[in-house]
Please model this.
Amino acid sequence: MGEQVESTREFLPSGGAGRYRANVEALSRFQPDVAGLVEDLAIPDDMRLVVGRDGRETFLLPSEGALPTWLGGSSMPSVSVPQILASFQSEGSNVALPGVQTGLEAIAVANKCPSHVAVFVVEPDPLLIKLAMYLYDYTLPIDSGRVVFLAGPDLQAALRSFLQAHCGYELPRKLVTVPQVSTQQVAELQRELQVAGESVVDIFTSAVDERVAALAARRVGATPETPRVAVVGVDPRRFAIAHGTGVASALSRLGWTHETCVPDRPSACHTAARISAVERVRADLVLFASGCADRFRALVPADLPVVAWYPPAGHVPEHIHEPSRGHDLSVACSSSQRDRLVAAGVSADDVEICGLAVDDTTFRPVSVTAEDRQRWGGEIAVLMDLPDDRPESAGVNLPSHVALWQAMRDGVLDDPEGYSHDRAGERLAEAERASGTALDDSKTREHFLGLLRARIAPACIARAQVSALVAKYEQVVTFGANWPPRDGGPDFRRGPIPFGEELNTLSNCMSVVVLPASGSSMIQLALCAMAAGIPVVCRGEKAALLREYPGLESIERFLHLYEQRRELTRTVGQLLSSSFDRQGMTSSARDAVLAQYTFRHRVEYIADCVRRRQQSQDAPGERAPRARV
Model:
C-alpha cells in the first residue's frame, strides 16, 4: 500500500473521514491492492461537496468547458436509485455494475440479492471509489464479500488479480443497467466482461487441478470412528443452506474435525472452493449436503466416500450420472424421495432413508418479550407457502381455459374434504362440464390435471382450512406466500415463513402451530416447532405418514393429525383449553425429538452406514445388514 493521503479539507462530508477510514480498513482486508490504489489518490481541489436535492451530501465533479456534474449523474441519489433499481431482480448469479455511479447503487443492488451473490463494480477511475467511500458505509458488504471493486482501466488485469486471491467466486453473469450508461456503452462493457471472463478461465482450471492432484496423492483408508468431514453443497436456497449449516453444527458438537463449504457467501460458490474444503480438512468422508453430487464425484479419489444427502424439498434430477462407487451412498429423507432416486438411476442398494433432522441448537424453548409477541400478533400460527393458483401464473390465458381453471377452483372450494389426487380426473371432468370447455388433447388434459394436483387443490384446501379456523378463533395469523387477504376483517397475513432463530422466536410466541399439509417441508417445520416446545397440528393420515417417513413412530403421537376441517378446529380448541397439560405434552414431545431426530443422530447414522459398506467390500459376497432408522 502506498503512502496514505489524509485530507482535512472542510468540504468533506460530516463524519466522512471516519466512514472513509472504516471502508478502507475493510477493503484492505479484502482487496488490499485496490485499497492501496484508493489511498494513494488525493482529492483534487476542484471537487465540491454539496447537498443534493434529497438533502443528502454528494459531490459535484468538474467538467471541461461545461457546468459541474453530479456524482453518478444524480442530484438526489436516495430517491432516484431505489426507483432505477425497482425492477431489478437477482437471477442467483453474480452481477456487474458499470461504475460506482452515485455510490449508493452497489449497496442497493447487493441488498436486493441473496447472500451468495456479489456485485462487481467495474470502475476505471479509482478516485470515484474514494469519493463514494466518504459518502456511504461499505464495511458490511465488503466484509461479507458482497461488493467487489474492479478498479482501473485494465478490466482483465483487475479481474485476474481478484480471482487469483479469491478463486471461490463465480464470474459475474448479469450486467445491471442504469440510465447513466448508454445502450452502446452497455454492449461494449458486456463484450469486455466476456473477454475478461474468457481470459481468466485458466485461474479456475489451475485451482481445481492443483487441489485434485493434492487429493489424488493422498491415501484414504477406512472411515474412522471420528472421521474428518467435508460438508459441501451447491444449492443456495435457504433450506439447503440451513441443512448444510445444521450438519456442520452437529459435527462441532460431536467433536469431529470438519470444513464447510455451502453457497451462503460469494466465496463458496465455485467448484474450486468445494475441492479446497475437502483438501484442507484431509477428509475421510464428504457429505454433499444438497443432493446430487453430479460431476463433483469424479474430482475426488475413488476411495474417498461421498454421501449425496438430499434434504426436504431437495431437487432429484430425472437422471443421475455421477460415477458409482461401491461405498458411496445416497441419503433420502422420505420414501417418495428414495423412489425418485431409484427412478433416476441410483441402485436401490445404494439409497438409505435417513429421515428428517432438526438443529436443536437453533430450535429450543426461549423467553420472548412483549415486543416479540406484539410483532407477530396472534396465538395460532399457520405456516405454509401456498402454490400460486392464479391462471396467469401458469401461463393460462385463453378465456376458455381460464373459465376451466375457475371451475376447477370452485369445485375444490365447494367440497375441499372430498378432494383426493386419485379422483382428480373426476374433478377435472366436472369442471369441463361446468365451464363448457372440453379438453380433447391428451397432453393438454394431463397438463391441467397436473395443475389441479400441484397448484389449485393444495391452495384451495389450505384456504378452506384457515377460513374455518378464523371463523372460530380470532388470534389466527398466517405465514407464507400467496395467502389472500381476509374478507371483511383485519389482515391475518404476516409475510414469509421466518427462518432459523427468527422462526424459533415466532414458535415460542405462539400457543399452537398449524401446518395445513403433510409434505417433507411441513414435517420439517413440525420437528422445529416441537423442539421449541410448541404443540403442532398437521394435516395428514397416520398410516400414510408412517409409510412416507419410516422411523417416525416414536414422535407420531405428538403430531396432532387431522383430515377434516372440523377435526382441525376441535383439535386446536383442545390444545388451547385450560385442561390441556401443555407443559407435560410439549416437554415429552421435545424429549422425543432430541432423542432421535437431531442432525447429530443423522450424521452418526450416515457414518455408520459408510463404514458398514466399506466392511462389506472387504468381505466379497457379503452384504452388511441395514440398520433400522
In short: The CA atoms of residues 208 and 272 lie 5 Å apart.
